[in-house]
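hi! just following up on the protien thing from before. the input was this:
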Amino acid sequence: MPQTSKTTVAEMNALTGALSPIFGSVASDVELPVDHMNDQPVAPQVAAELIREYLSTEGNAHQNLATFVQTYMEPEATQLMADTLEKNAIDKDEYPMTADIENRCVAILENLWHADPDEQPMGTSTVGSSEACMLGGLGMLFRWKALAKAAGIDVYSETRPNLVVTSGYQICWEKFCRYWDIEMRLVPMDENHLSMDPELAMKYVDDHTIGVVCIIGITYTGRYDDVKGMDKLLAEYNKTAKVPVRIHVDGASGAMIAPFIEPDLEWDFRLPNVWSISTSGHKYGLVYPGIGWVIWRSKEALPEDMIFWVSYLGGQEATMAINFSRSAAQIVGQYYVFLRNGFEGYKEIHTRTMDVAHHLVDEISKMGIFEMVYSAEECPILCWKLVADKDWTLYDLQDRLRMHGWQIPAYPLPANMQETVVQRIVCRADLSMTLVDKFLRDMKAEIANLDKSHIITGKTDREYTTSFDHSGR
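and the predicted 3d structure came back as:
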């Protein structure tokens, strides 16, 4: 019988460690690195499982009804994106087919938003809608500077350029104004105007206004600003203005909903003063984060100063994005979803999502203790305030629902309405009627629990604990 060599034994001993069950391995008994790298390598299966176990303590993404961000894609899309993670989106010379796919996505959005090909619209992908908004804002700023100088306005005076936007803005606009030293002029919301009031907004416009931002899908409520009304008033203003004021539509959510749900709604390039539009591909564009898009209606709308020609890896490429090297996976994912769903597929998905939102509106309204602030009229988003006289608040309800895994935020409305606290649900494509009915059962159970927990009954602690339904069932 042949003798086993010492080398073979050593190799077998090494294999023994590699073949150990994951949670029987030495590595599984070591704390995950916090601020220093571990000294020795860890087997890939062990490393993956330890991180997976750590992440498992987070919430379930499908129960996160606070986020607008997409939480489901088909396995085929996920695999396709994984297959293209190594492609650098900026390297158009090395990956010309990937660059062509990005250009096709831009052209699809131009068509969806009624851009006129004769005006030579232009656009680009971005990491998300925040970068897209930054680029839209820079386009407004650069245009204003050029036109203001030509009109004899001192662009270097103590009077800063300003941007007009509703007080229900998303934080990216505050970042833009702070980064580029722009005065942020907030049009206040009130109970009668839970979106921008165009008449009031015009009072904030002057010769130093770089543009007006209209939001379709305000973060706080989901409402759409009246883009058409704003366009009409600016058309009159621009007849005598030293510097014409244009609109950037922040369509982070609504720009990928309105074309399918309300095709006759005029908010896009059909309106002459809408000069740029941004959106999140990773919201109702149905792609995993992060991907955004920004389109300018014409070459005139995109200042030449924003286009950079770079010599990179053997070619000359135009770039107008703030970010440079990044994976093309999300761009490929966006093209997959456009191809996979087509117009009718998007319409079906968003229509069903709206049905789910309206079901929630109906059922929550029937509870008799809430008043709907926004009832998913345009976006599949709903928010409500507590109107019944209760000893608990929406913050309490938020905490109780979190015990079931549901993330339903409670928060005050923006300045001028901060006394009003609302709770909001964002319905996404992966929120089924089955999940919604489970949520509604949990919500009703926790309302009953809150009603009981805030009543002083004179019972002993033991009697009270017994009557409290901790399970929520």
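The first strand starts at residue 122 and ends at 126.
The longest helix spans residues 329-366.
cheers
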